[in-house]
Amino acid sequence: MTKEKIQDKLSYKQLLTITLGLMGLIGSLASIYALISSQKEVSLQCDIISTTNVLDINTEISDLDILFKQSSLKKANKNLKLVIIKIKNDGTEDILKTFYDDKAPFGIKPLVGQIVEKPEIIETSNDYLKDNLDITIDSTGIIYFSNVIIDRKEQFTFKLLTLVDKGSEPKFEITGKIAGINGKIEIGLFETQVELPFFKQVFLGDVWVQLIKSVIYFLIIAILIIIIAISSESISDRLKKKKRTKRIEDFKKSDNYVFHHIDSVIFEMYQREEDYRLMLIQEELKDITQLAEKYERLTEDLESEKEKSDKRKGYTEEYYMIKEDLDDIKNFIDNGFILKTDEKFIVNETLKNTLDKFIKFCGIEKMEYSRFRNLKMHSGVINSSQHAV
After folding, report:
1. 154-196 pLDDT, tens per residue?
2. CATH number of this structure's domain 45-56+64-188
3. CA-based nearest residue to 158, from 119, 106, 127, 188
């Protein structure tokens, strides 16, 4: 049946009534489905942010040797590597002190290489973790975390100094027991994250769940048919979104790419058509030192403008300009592109490499970055170099 025939048969009021009724029914069924399928989950996500050589000497020099704790690394054929690890509560439940087992303490055991110094905490998501989290190392080289509360979405980052055989990479495993977590917690080190196949996701759940899903899918299709019948304005947007989704999936399947959980932020930005922001991030990450200096300068400028605004009893236009530039950099940090420590900025190399590959794969032109900067200029937002002047 064509759009015109449907419109002839049903008035706009009838279509609106049917649509609202179906949407109400979907909402009720969705609530029942959520009640049936929802499960409380205790979970921890452990990701290796970066692994770098402490000393990187590319040319063999016969008379040059490096000593570590009075031992020759060259004679022992060893190498020092700095590993940065982030642990995050990605479950739906807070992890309480009572969740830990004193007889099986929560920690990390090196499988390849050895941890040679007490780990250092470099970032926490809240003051409680900063003040109460402690990491110790025993005589066997295993590190243990103190029993602290880790609320949902909270996280902490620490660094390990490891000694490994030359040419090898350090590997670790999680030890201990946390109530509610069955099996071992996997560390995301050089491993592709495996997603459930499409059909397993579709048919996940018992008979009642599948029945409710079927009814919901049917009603959704019915509503879509009605909406398309009375208006086709959103078709172009849907096709564009579908095209971008397919491009993301094609990239994930490419030979030179391994999926990491933290890469999702790039794909979400691309899905929202924020190509210019991806280019902005790529440009800014080229010189992390300059970006750190820019961050400090903008922070000082913002504080200065705030003082001026307080005297005038209202924020100045310059204040909003500086704040927007500063917010851009803060978004880099919040999205995981940059790890901010007390001393400096550290680039998330895994995310940076994925960004470079994805921009090249999608053919995002540099004009997107220029368009973004011009857009800011036309809206009266000046960049950091203007702030310095």
Report:
1. 999 999 999 888 888 899 999 999 998 888 888 885 344 445 5
2. 2.60.40
3. 119
